[in-house]
Amino acid sequence: MSPLHDVAWQSWELSASLTLAVVVTGLLYIRGFLRSRSTAPKTIPPSRANSFLVGLFLIWIAVASPIASLDHQLLTVHMIQHLLLMTFAPPFILWGFPVRCFGQLLPRQLVQGVIGLFRRPPVQRLGRGAGQLTLCWLAATATLMVWHVPGVFLLGMQSESWHAFEQASFLGAGLLFWWPVVQPWLTASTSPRWSLVLYLFLATLPCDILAGFLVFSDRIAYPVYLSGPHHSRLGALSDQQCAGALMWTAVTIAYLIAGTIVTARLLELPGYAEARESRS
To answer: For the whole model, what pTM was predicted?
Structure first.
């Protein structure tokens, strides 16, 4: 094993609280999923449950696995955490219809009361606003940029509480960003479906700017990685360039795949199919 692997395993301490939270969340979801299947077998296919569990596992990798123990030593590992929490775990989580499955565990009267609350006009307006593409894009972009400002980044590295808040904000912003794309709730977005393609394209721009800066900069953006021990062959500048290249590639591929799926589904809609036939 390489020295980096040795350090990862030696410095890793299993976070009982985080691991227990992930396990309990998974078990509760499975229970709700099975209840939903017992009442309406075709409501949520098993692939949706697998998707949710994959998302939970990605979150665990980001916050509690041996990889997480290296985030203070390598910017590349820190970037992997951000990508898992904001780009990859959220769509898997939302694709599993978590609201519907966890709703199965609540008392029926409480569920009916919540449904009645969401049917009220002020709450519906708030829900439509939360599903607006502009709001979701701004929230995700602001979270990405603010936490990569050197001073704010250093704050998250020096404080465990701020570091936990940083990770939670990345996950929350990721869920908000992917919500109108995955649409786990029918009223998730009032914007036209075709605008999602533009939404995903524009989302790559802030990531490209940040990744380009990290890749092409000839100075260390985060000096905190100069003072820590290095157990890999990467120097601090090479580590920074690797982190930027990883972000550039991973985000581009993720959004390209999502955009392709959205476009394919858009072309399958009856209105678009009829329009294509009339033009041909």
So the answer is: 0.83
